[in-house]
Amino acid sequence: MPSGWIIIFSMKTKIVIGVIVLMLIVAAGMAIYAWNSTPQLVKSYPQTGAINVPATSPIRLVFSRAMDQETVNTRLKIEPAIGGTFKWDKNILTFTPDQAWPGGQMIKLILESGARAASWISFPLGRQSWTFDVNEAMLAYLWPSDGRADIYALTPTTGEIRQFTHGLGVLDFTVSNNGIMIYFSAPNSQGGVNLYRIDRTEVENSTEYSYQAQELLDCGTAQCRNPVASFDDLKLAYEYILPNPSGGSGPAQIWLLNLTSSEALPIGQETHETVQPSWSSTGLLAYYDRTSSGYEVINPLSQERVLLPNQTGQPGDWSPSGEYYLAPEIYYYQAPKDTERGTSHLIRYGVNSNTTEDISKSIDVEDVAASYSPDGSSIAFARKFLDAAHWSLGRQIWIMNVDGSSSHPITDEADYNHYDLAWSRDGLMLAYVRFEESRIFNPPELWMVNADGSNALQLVIRGYSPIWIP
Known about the structure:
This protein is mostly beta strands. 8% of the residues lie in helices and 46% in strands. It folds into 3 domains: 1-36; 41-134, Immunoglobulin-like, CATH 2.60.40; 138-469, TolB, C-terminal domain (Neuraminidase), CATH 2.120.10.
């Protein structure tokens, strides 16, 4: 072989070797990049092995880097299966179930292998799995009725009772739509009333419950009462009452507390007395305007307002769809011997359609305290007949369809007044308070009954203001 060919062959060999080495370096670099780009699941809520997780808790997965969202969404498996919505915020996935997790059961989550980072090359995440136990539905309430009250919760199936506050003298409380937050009012050292919050998730992974109340708003000498959280848990409506310089309290006004920024501002007209805030599922806020004698419904975002005329000013209830507002109204009619008699009927206000409908469908009754079932198919309410033949000392619990048809009682205790009606989240039971009107020195009693009227059960003597929490 000529020497020139040897030189050329040697140069080609060196070039080939150089290209191979370069390719190996590039491949190694890509492998290192892919390895470093491999995502990790750094945090999950609920944590693996968590117990007593609220039945409406979302699943939250925190990854080490931004993910290819579809590769995660399609690989997240839940046993037992349940539908829900996926929401991403950078590297954090939140899965919100369409319905509550089955109470008292273990939930298994599996993230199958193959989930990838959003980078152009990475190794897939390996299979992940974990479990958590769901809390059974509990009935929260205030106790005792004749002393400094605190918030308690009872699990009906086991009889277990938890105490959420200790010696605070809670005046009123509410629960967020998902059941995770408890908001309440309690006196402060300045003679006023402050607003507080308890986050149930802070201790639910333990069997030792030690709830810590967080002060939301220091109201000084003013009273901040009757807090109600919006469905998205971003705003808290409440009554703000300034002390009267001449003694006692001044008129109440509805204020809104932004739970993100902690900014608090009045929302009703400044010269009007407004009370009893109530949120719809669509973000509308209703409250009673005593000055205008009606329920004012306001959209806090657009400030659009609608007035629903009403003389009673008793608490009302939104339909689950947010389409209707239901409240009692006074009516007068001619009675025998040319006398006029007052009665209370339930009026269904069509907020968007500007309609009103009397759904009591009976003249001689006093209907109050209406409450929609969670699925919107039924209404529970308290009824008392006013005619001599059917009159009773106390109001009984009745159930009817949402149009007022098929009304029927589920209690029959003439001497007892029934109030504070609260549907369980599955719509199968009602909690309520009953009070013996013929013996006014007896304490109120907290009871529970199936929606068909069966299996009435006394739960707590001197308990009141029941609210179901998942």
